[in-house]
Amino acid sequence: MSKKLNVAVLGASGYTGSELVRMLLRHPAVEIVALSADSKAGKTMADVFPQFAPFALPRLVKIDEIDLGLVDVVFCALPHATTQVVLKGVIAAKPDLKVIDLSADFRLADPAAYETWYGHAHQALELQAEAVYGLTEIHRAAISRARLVANPGCFTTCSLLPVLPLLTAGAIDPDEIVVDAKTGMSGAGRAAKEAMLFSEVAEGLHAYGVANHRHTAELDQEYSLAAGRPVKPTFTPHLTPMIRGIYATIYVRTTPGHDAADLHTILAERYKAEPFVTVLPLGQVPQSRHVKGSNHVQIGVVPDRIPGRAIVISTLDNLVKGASGQAIQNMNVVCGLAEGTGIDQVALFP
Ligand SMILES: NC(=O)C1=CN([C@@H]2O[C@H](COP(=O)(O)OP(=O)(O)OC[C@H]3O[C@@H](n4cnc5c(N)ncnc54)[C@H](OP(=O)(O)O)[C@@H]3O)[C@@H](O)[C@H]2O)C=CC1
Ligand SMILES: CC(=O)N[C@@H](CCC(=O)OP(=O)(O)O)C(=O)O
């Protein structure tokens, strides 16, 4: 067997970082050589997450303690804004490093859009300009040539995959897209926040970021690319008292000559060779439980009772296809490995 890839995970003491470690442990072409943390530096993974106790793993260290000379691929699972500063130093120290970044720092190609949505000027504009948007099924060819991949957001992966082929085909009206999405709480990360306390979220449901959630900018960017003209969807996220999962219910208007059955045919045809995207039979509704713990997206198309309208529903696990699973999928593409290596597990059920 050829030499394994030496991989480092920055932010391994967080939710997406630990999910990366969980999945990379069963990746046959990878050796985990370094793991970083901030407040938890110095601890072992088993100290932070007892489920790792049976596995031999490097100790959590500060990023500047990692010997980058040993590393081929680095995953960044760090907070927004932190990543662009950290990565400038990391790439300066080792320019031939392959980087898969899970944060939002490099997703928006337009620096002005970044500044508008994130409230500050980007700190690593040259890296932002070279980054490739890592929606694997759509940008695979560009990802295969990339040094820096910007893994998409969880809401966005779930809301882009079912819509982009319909826009490209001209089968839906770009001005009439409404994305109503729900997320589980792990989407907010592991750091303590009052709004994420059990007693603030359990037995309830609420919208947040209404009309201004930052993932709207990613939707604008990718919908517009697919449509070949500016597109601005309505996007409303909701927080639900589940741990994992994104569930997007998307309302669209079909263009003349198209109906819901056509939308279903377009999606089924577009994704028939894609192992991680399943288009269910027309009228069948997906469930978040059927993708939990897996890298799979399930998409359903349902005709509306109102002529000219259709409802497209999509679900994924925010920590897997919405983050760490897609990040490994992108590493596989960047490094020329079979795309499903290490991420082909079936969903956890019940
Ligand atoms: N959660 C999700 O579903 C998704 C998250 N993302 C993105 O992935 C990234 C990681 O998210 P998530 O895992 O949820 O976050 P967590 O809060 O769970 O983890 C953050 C990690 O970053 C470390 N860290 C925090 N501040 C610093 C710093 N200043 N310098 C170095 N390391 C630091 C933390 O270390 P320590 O714990 O030791 O303090 C921890 O390991 C974010 O950018 C997020 O937006 C993307 C898609 C989905
Ligand atoms: C529940 C919750 O707070 N979710 C996060 C989305 C997490 C994610 O996928 O996206 P980023 O990588 O862009 O943070 C939010 O709404 O900001």
Automatic annotation (TrEMBL):
<keyword id="KW-0028">Amino-acid biosynthesis</keyword>
<dbReference type="InterPro" id="IPR058924">
    <property type="entry name" value="AGPR_dimerisation_dom"/>
</dbReference>
<keyword id="KW-0560">Oxidoreductase</keyword>
<protein>
    <recommendedName>
        <fullName>N-acetyl-gamma-glutamyl-phosphate reductase</fullName>
        <ecNumber>1.2.1.38</ecNumber>
    </recommendedName>
</protein>
<dbReference type="InterPro" id="IPR023013">
    <property type="entry name" value="AGPR_AS"/>
</dbReference>
<dbReference type="InterPro" id="IPR050085">
    <property type="entry name" value="AGPR"/>
</dbReference>
<dbReference type="GO" id="GO:0003942">
    <property type="term" value="F:N-acetyl-gamma-glutamyl-phosphate reductase activity"/>
</dbReference>
<dbReference type="GO" id="GO:0070401">
    <property type="term" value="F:NADP+ binding"/>
</dbReference>
<dbReference type="Pfam" id="PF22698">
    <property type="entry name" value="Semialdhyde_dhC_1"/>
</dbReference>
<keyword id="KW-0963">Cytoplasm</keyword>
<comment type="similarity">
    <text>Belongs to the NAGSA dehydrogenase family. Type 1 subfamily.</text>
</comment>
<dbReference type="GO" id="GO:0005737">
    <property type="term" value="C:cytoplasm"/>
</dbReference>
<dbReference type="GO" id="GO:0006526">
    <property type="term" value="P:L-arginine biosynthetic process"/>
</dbReference>
<comment type="pathway">
    <text>Amino-acid biosynthesis; L-arginine biosynthesis; N(2)-acetyl-L-ornithine from L-glutamate: step 3/4.</text>
</comment>
<dbReference type="InterPro" id="IPR036291">
    <property type="entry name" value="NAD(P)-bd_dom_sf"/>
</dbReference>
<keyword id="KW-0055">Arginine biosynthesis</keyword>
<dbReference type="InterPro" id="IPR000706">
    <property type="entry name" value="AGPR_type-1"/>
</dbReference>
<dbReference type="InterPro" id="IPR000534">
    <property type="entry name" value="Semialdehyde_DH_NAD-bd"/>
</dbReference>
<feature type="domain" description="Semialdehyde dehydrogenase NAD-binding">
    <location>
        <begin position="6"/>
        <end position="146"/>
    </location>
</feature>
<dbReference type="Pfam" id="PF01118">
    <property type="entry name" value="Semialdhyde_dh"/>
</dbReference>
<dbReference type="GO" id="GO:0051287">
    <property type="term" value="F:NAD binding"/>
</dbReference>
<feature type="active site">
    <location>
        <position position="154"/>
    </location>
</feature>
<keyword id="KW-0521">NADP</keyword>
<comment type="function">
    <text>Catalyzes the NADPH-dependent reduction of N-acetyl-5-glutamyl phosphate to yield N-acetyl-L-glutamate 5-semialdehyde.</text>
</comment>
